[in-house]
Design goal:
- By secondary structure, the chain is α+β, with helices and mostly antiparallel strands.
- Helices cover 26% and strands 24% of the residues.
- The protein has helices at 22-30, 40-49; strands at residues 5-8, 15-18, 53-55, 60-62, 68-70.
- It has a three-stranded antiparallel β-sheet. A two-stranded antiparallel ribbon has the order 4-5.
- Strand 1 (5-8) and strand 2 form a beta hairpin.
- It is globular.
- The termini are far apart.
């Protein structure tokens, strides 16, 4: 079993939890139809909806300088 990892997306800084192995995530994304890959948001939503990641929705985000900011 893959250990869960708390991460932030490189673009947009969204906080998410990786639930499945990166190899499985990459394969899933490769197999998504083109109309499901119009934006990073759309790809992340598909990953979330299919149980590959969990979008934390905790108000925490990371800026381009890799500094984490809570929204409170």
């Amino acid at each position: 079993m893959q250990r869960e990892r708390s991460l932030h997306s490189k673009y947009g800084g969204v906080h998410f939890i990786q639930l499945k192995h990166a190899r499985d995530i990459n394969e899933f994304v490769r197999n998504l139809p083109a109309d499901k890959k119009d934006s990073l948001f759309e790809v992340m939503q598909e990953l979330h909806n299919h149980g590959y990641i969990q979008i934390a929705n905790d108000g925490e985000w990371m800026d381009p300088g890799a500094e984490i900011h809570p929204i409170h």
